[in-house]
Amino acid sequence: MQKTIELLRKNDELKIIDAELDIYLEIPHLAYAEVKKKDGGKALLFTNAGDKKSGKKFEEPILMNVFGSYKRCELLFGRTIESVADEITKLLHMKPPSGFMNKLSFAGELFSLKNIFPKKLKGEGACQEIKYLGDDINLHNIPVLTTWEQDGGPFITMGQVYTQSLDGEMVNLGMYRLQVYDKNHLGMHWQIHKDSSHFFDQYQKAGKKMPVSIAIGGNPLYTWCATAPLPYGVNELLMYGLITKKPAKLVKSLTTPLYIPEDVDYVIEGWVDTAQLKVEGPFGDHTGYYTLAELYPVMEVSAITTKKKRVYLATVVGKPPLEDKYMGWATGKIFFPLLKTTVPDLLDYHMPENAGFHNLILAKMQPLYKGHAKQFMHAFWGAGQMSFVKHALFFDESAPKLENYEAITTYALNRFMPESLFISEGILDALDHSSPETLVGGKLGIDLTKAHKLEAPTLLRDEELFLKVKELIPEATGLHQFMIRTSNPITVIAIDKKRKASEYFNNLISLSPYMRIVVFVDTLKNDISNAYMLVWRVTNNMDAQRDVFVSGLMVGVDGTNKNSLDGFHREWPDDVDCTQSVVSALKLRGIWNLEESLNEQYQL
Ligand SMILES: Cc1cc2nc3c(=O)[nH]c(=O)nc-3n(C[C@H](O)[C@H](O)[C@H](O)COP(=O)(O)O)c2cc1C
Description:
Layout: H1 2-10, E1 14-17, E2 21-22, H2 26-34, E3 43-46, E4 49-51, E5 56-57, E6 62-64, H3 70-77, H4 81-92, H5 100-113, E7 119-120, E8 130-133, E9 155-156, E10 160-164, E11 171-175, E12 178-182, E13 185-188, H6 195-206, E14 210-216, H7 220-227, H8 237-244, E15 249-252, E16 259-261, E17 266-280, E18 283-284, E19 290-291, E20 294-306, E21 312-314, H9 323-340, E22 346-350, E23 361-365, H10 372-380, E24 391-395, H11 405-415, E25 421-427, E26 440-448, H12 462-472, E27 476-482, E28 490-495, H13 501-507, E29 517-522, H14 531-541, H15 544-547, E30 548-551, E31 554-558, H16 580-588, H17 596-601
Bound molecules: flavin mononucleotide (FMN).
């Protein structure tokens, strides 16, 4: 971490904040606001952290937003993300060489591969300079942040969680949030689809306790590797070796059989009693909504070790854009060659940051036969963590760049027709709150590889159209049309919902000469002219099986919050919002400096 701080400082990517600040809300709120600035603001180093509630002051600084810009990401990778992806592509296509020079370069590549395997060192590491065992264990001595007001407690947000299979053959590194319950217990939020959860099942069946070692800090690449969606059974530290060309150097934990990188800043070791689960959460999550309290495994801490000069690394998740935007960008690029092994005709893909990654993906492909795009949809919905994707748009090779939102949306709307829609069912991210039941729900694929030429509807001004809508839906409170120069303009209608959205849609059918795609959102908390946040809201709140309606050329989409009117009986979570009293207090002290326009744009 010290080297990282130096690297960021030298590259003018670090801001040091010496003001006395609370680990409860204040520090995370500042980090949240910073990363929303142009180009992700700066990484922040808080040197004077305290816990106002207990009066404790922390010796160590807290480092945040390290990955929070494209530039910082590449600095921390030590190379361009493109070059990592290219190297993976090359490895996947390695063929036995012909000719002497080719053989030499092939041998060189193979030789460099030996560095990707982690190396186990004898003895102790720098991460074990200070040891806390028995009664000296106290998680409250680490400056663990409470990010949001409704959070169930403090959470470690950048923990590298090292686990192994029951037979010790497979090792896994994953990043899962960890709730601090008391001085020696942590909640393990590994979701049911994740590798450590599969290991947990093995220990549970065998009636054994499961060892876990959690590292914080060290080279930030360990942290990125922990988020990498590598297949079950593959140790994510191999990725570290591949990127840096140096093996990760590991030492054995003091009280578990697990090996951790020797240079990390903290190690929290312990054992999970597989017979016991405990309520974990709520937690303001990267969906921009709170994930509700649920039962998860608990670890009893058996040792904490640290470096003498340690730095606590943390992130904050909530409404986009945040640090995970940049981490996800690197993941998307690096995993493209691996995804191509499942779908070779994939030309490009992109996950817009404002759709929280799994809620929307844009993909470009080379359609070769009838039904090819549908085949892709099924392949995506069956490929590892890609199967969490809820909504996927497929384009042919002549589509504009996927990151050019204006151009790609125009292209999509000019060739869309209701028959482009394909609705199916599949698994969902454990964080999804929209579907009628957890873990499974609607999937929406839109095949835009074929062009349909539609006449554009008759255009009315927003005010005129709103008057007509209001006559049919008295609960409508506002209307805004987007992309009006395309054959399928999008009409967003805000409503004070008193009925199911499908009923509102049916009421509007007589207006079909004027409208094509109609999106309903709640009046409360939505700005119907803010496309960025509308995409966030609607892709989060939709379940395609329930929330898409078609009548002739008109398509309705229900982006409202669901309740019993919709036959929805799960609890609907709250938005993740900043605590305004904390923001005001920071403003008064002159520490909060986010422009008001960004505050509004990202609905803090
Ligand atoms: C900031 C951040 C927080 C995350 N929190 C969790 C979490 O609490 N639980 C979880 O299962 N996955 C979480 N993830 C996603 C996992 O890290 C990711 O799916 C990873 O590939 C899991 O590793 P595994 O497949 O080896 O289990 C988070 C990712 C990021 C970037």
